[in-house]
Design brief:
Layout: E1 15-19, E2 26-27, E3 30-31, H1 35-39, H2 41-49, E4 53-57, H3 77-84, E5 89-91, H4 96-100, E6 108-110, H5 117-120, H6 124-132, E7 136-139, E8 161-163, H7 165-179, E9 185-189, H8 198-204, E10 210-213, H9 216-224, H10 239-252, E11 255-257, E12 261-265, E13 274-278, E14 287-291, H11 293-305, E15 308-312, H12 325-339, E16 344-347, H13 350-359, E17 367-368, H14 373-379, H15 385-391
């Protein structure tokens, strides 16, 4: 761990530039999910408790370097005040003079950093300007750490820097899952397409003991073995790649777990008439929409033997009943083992979090990452600019 935390910084009397992710979903001006705001509360609380002044830097949406009133951060102020339990001062055009004039216990929110193209270009001029506003830089936005932007990477080189509580928790959880994990390690990777998770699969087979492949991408692996998957979602042009990943897994001693029985239907609709068949016997006019009970039992056995679980992606079309059964059953099994203290479970990715919440299992996982792209890139073994900058 080459990065510092808030505990390593002298915060009293300091203006603390704090990069957060409050890019929350909204409909007609109403926040529909405040999770990202809730997750930054410990950082803001601890900075203020130590005598520092948090100056929040954040983006909202994709304004592409232009001022967009509909993407202003100002409407988030009431939600932030409710979460923090204190007033939040919003500044459209920040200056050090204005910031220094605020009370020491103030919380300051700077307008959307992406209202200038210099942010995403990681322009040194913007990084320098942001650095002039504070004394210490704290990055609490792991979910943006895979982007080398002025507010996520550039400014970190210009001020004493540290990780906020959420960033710290993310990094510690991922280190426990992939960096120096308790073994055996099992990974669950689901989703629609192999092509979107090539780097992830290639990295994991070298690092985990068992790899469960589910969702649409499992169909590609079945087809690569000469199995007819009917009308299922399948990337037939990725067959050679799938076979190469399986060969690499064999060399690395990683057991790949594919569906041995599947749930098939003739239409993709909730409540569609379905049946369970061996994976090798998908009817030509049907599509595979979930893993079957024998596969779930095999996954459960792998979980029982494991000490660490990493999960990204559902095992089937979990949005539709009854094709959520495998994901729900596996998630509840992981939750049970985590509660019992025999399994460290780390999960991340938008569909993953939704699936685990739907299963009622998310609350029992050791850690649920709020990040999407950053979580995936970390699992792929890539260097995240926002994290690397904290270590420099």
């Amino acid at each position: 761990m080459g990065w510092k935390t808030l505990d390593d910084m002298a915060l009293a009397g300091k203006r603390v530039l704090t990069r957060v992710d409050i890019n929350v979903p909204m409909q007609e001006g109403v926040i529909t999910d405040a999770t990202r705001i809730d997750r930054i509360v410990p950082t803001i609380r601890d900075i203020r408790a130590a005598g520092g002044t948090p100056i929040l830097l954040a983006h909202f949406g994709r304004p592409k370097g232009e001022y967009r009133p509909d993407l202003s951060l100002k409407p988030l102020v009431p939600a932030l005040e409710a979460a923090f339990g204190c007033p939040v001062t919003f500044i459209e055009k920040p200056s050090r003079a204005f910031i220094d004039a605020q009370p020491a216990d103030a919380v300051i929110l700077v307008e959307n950093t992406r209202f200038t193209a210099m942010e995403e270009a990681n322009d040194p001029r913007m990084a320098s300007f942001l650095a002039s506003l504070g004394d210490i830089y704290c990055n609490d936005a792991f979910s943006t750490a895979h982007r080398a932007h002025a507010s996520t990477e550039g400014v970190a080189h210009l001020l004493p820097c540290c990780a906020g509580r959420l960033m710290q928790a993310e990094l510690q959880a991922l280190e426990a899952a992939l960096g120096n994990p308790a073994r055996p390690v099992v990974a669950v990777v689901g989703g629609a397409k192999v092509s979107t998770k090539l780097d992830l699969l290639g990295n994991l087979v070298d690092k985990v003991d068992s790899l469960v492949i589910g969702g649409g991408m499992a169909n590609t692996f079945l087809a690569a073995q000469g199995i007819d998957v009917g009308k299922s979602l399948c990337e037939h042009d990725m067959a050679d790649t799938a076979r190469a990943i399986m060969a690499k897994a064999t060399t690395a001693g990683c057991a790949i777990i594919l569906p041995e029985d599947v749930v098939v239907a003739r239409e993709f609709a909730a409540g569609a008439l379905s049946q369970i068949v061996p994976a090798t016997e998908c009817p030509a006019e049907a599509m595979i929409l979930d893993a079957g009970p024998n596969t779930v039992a095999r996954i459960a056995t792998a979980f029982d033997a494991a000490r660490t679980l990493i999960w990204n992606g559902p095992l089937g079309a979990f949005e539709l009943i009854p094709f959520d059964a495998a994901t729900n059953a596996a998630a509840l099994k992981a939750a049970e083992l985590t509660r019992a203290g025999t399994l460290i479970s780390v999960a991340g990715g938008g569909d993953t979090v939704a699936a685990l919440n739907q299963a009622g299992a998310a609350g029992d996982f050791t850690y649920i990452s709020t990040a999407g792209g950053a979580f995936l890139e970390w699992m792929e073994g890539k260097t995240l600019p926002g994290v690397a900058a904290l270590e420099s």
